[in-house]
Fold TonB-dependent receptor.
Amino acid sequence: MKSYFLRHSSRLLATVPAYIVLPTLPCLLLASTSSLAATATTVTGSQPVDAKHVAAGRTRTLSTQHHPKAIAHKGEAEQIRVTRSRAQRHLSTPGTVNVISGKELRSLHLESPKDIAAFTPGVTATNAVSGSAPIFSIRGVGLDDYVGTNMGGIGIYLDGVFAPFPVFYTGQMLDIDSVATEKGPQGFDMGRSTTGGSINIQSVKPSDKFGGYAEWGYSSYNTNRGRFAINTPITSKISNRLAFNYVNGDGWQKDINTGKRYGAQDLLAIRNLTKFEVDDTSSVLLNLHYTRDKGTSTSPQDLGPVSKGDTGLHPAANAVSAGNTSGQRNENGGGLSVNYTKEFNFGTFSSTTAIDFYRRDDTDNYDGSALHISDYRWNDTAIVQSHDMHLRMKLAKIFHLTVGVFESYDKIDGDYTSLRLQSSSAINLNNHFSQQNLSTGVYVNTVTNITKKLDFIASGRFSYDERGFNGGSRYSAIASDSPRLFAPYYAQVGDALTGVNARHEYHRFTGRVGLRYKIAPDTYAYGTISNGYKAGSYFAAPVLAAGALDYVKPENLIAYEIGIKSSLFHNKLMVEGSLFDYEYHNRQTLFFAPITPTANSLTLGTIPRARTRGGELSTTLHNLVPNLDLRGSFAYLDARAKSPVNYINGLSLDPPVTRNSSLPFSPRFSWSAVTRYNINVDRYRVTLQASYTWKDNMWAALGDNNAKTSKISSLGLRMEFGPQTGKWNAAVYVDNLQNRKGNTYSFTGSDNNRIQYIQSPRWIGCELHYNF
């Protein structure tokens, strides 16, 4: 198996140089990123703008075919910079798209992809164990695997590059232009096939103007943050943008016995973008980036007796009992990507090639006990190489065509260790493994104008995936009165308890059909039927039960959605609402299974049939009332298993999953609101902001009575002061003003106690920002 993957990976990596020059060859007909294939317009135009193309930060160059009045002679070109809001650009997309601008990210202190869930309807994200393994879901679709080696049902893209594992977007939320969350099955106009949706993060791109900013902030727990970005035109054809972010602070958690702090931050990230204007119609963007994290992982609370090394039944929100466990993060990684863009009279070609590496050696007190029970060490190295190229064409006034191809190869070599207490024996479980994945896909998307106001959308995708895993858990005693594990294993030191050496390959056809109707200028109604596909998975955690390591079959989803989008009063009022119905087959999820009265195991498995129904509504008001901005969202989810599950991978569930059981990470209700008001005084401006988020309780795993989280809410306030020119501003803020102490993730630990993670406490800070 290893030689098979190496042969494929070496072949793929060897083609990288060819990809860079490929756009100049006749085979350009292989791709596109635009879902609607709409041409760019001027700022005052009423036609839809291609969201993904504009989000990439390029300045459109329009030919006479696209804009006959813009060019007088052949060969001349007029550059038009599109400045419409991010939400406006997604207005005509036949699906729900929630956009948060870079300015909103900064004012709301959304520092990582996980943080945007608080202000995006229908999205949840939480950290389980180390902060480098967040669990995402969109409308209840994701993969609740805390290990971090599996790709969920959500595709996360950084400047168009797919990040298959959470570690690859650690620290890279710096100098961001926008974040767009697309709901429902994806993969018909870019990237990999996903069942739940995608999160597209776009950084600020280089321009031909010198400028930038510098910022410093100080906040609770002695937290310092410094960041800057500088844009430098090197020549008339080359421009560069360098962004830097560093944060360092003490931990907000405190050990009740040792006084040691947990949750400390020590994160550095840097990114350099260089844009080369090859000619008037083509450009190359080079992206180099690096991240380093040496913080201290947060520790959960073990709700058990203090005399047994736990935190007690009713601990303070910041109290932990981690003993002498040296919880830490030692992570670093980086990579590069090259994007080539070429404009033609008939469309736009784009090709993005990327390679990334990441290394981590993290220690977590997984179950929050001072005793060495389920302490984890995550030691792995990951590499991913990917390529996506696409051509967007307008072949006729009534027909838009998008064709593309995507391929990626990723590999993780890991050595995960779990320290367990079995009766009087303290044992190590080690899972030394190699996981390798190869994915390819060819996609086509069409938009046909049936009438002046009615469009028919048809998309298709063929995906081929290979998954390989070679590894398993071994047993070694480190402190014991017996060299043998207790019943039911009776294993000798060094014996293999579990093991998998397998490879699976499969292919799927997925598609989407829909109608989009233009009710009025900038007002659309749509309806779509689509199906999504997510590749199979392996569970890489050290486990006692052999069945817990079994292969998990691919997930399939059929999605029905109707919605309406409208932009009124010259983009001052934007409304987006949708209703959806999802039908799952083999939904992948995390299960809790008891092995003995004193031992249990988590494992991945599937629910044969499940269903999610719900609705979302989001509204933005910009300056409809002078100097006042409002943003609000609401989501409802009804996510339930439709097939009972009594056994997973040979493990008996107690209690079993019954029909109509709630699915994990599917809060019934959630909502958020943000208001900003500007007060102009002479040459200065004072900005007042209030924000509030609320999410209903939800389950983190099936079959575990302790896995239900509490309701989570947070109120934030912010005040800014500075000149109306925006040259500089100073701000003070407080997050979680009410100092809520909800548990964001919980489960049953190895000692059968409830284990819980608590939301961050009240956070007060100040910032100084200067633009140059």
Q: What stands out?
A: The longest strand covers residues 454-479. The helical segments are 2-14, 16-21, 51-55, 86-89, 102-107. The CA atoms of residues 694 and 713 lie 4 Å apart.
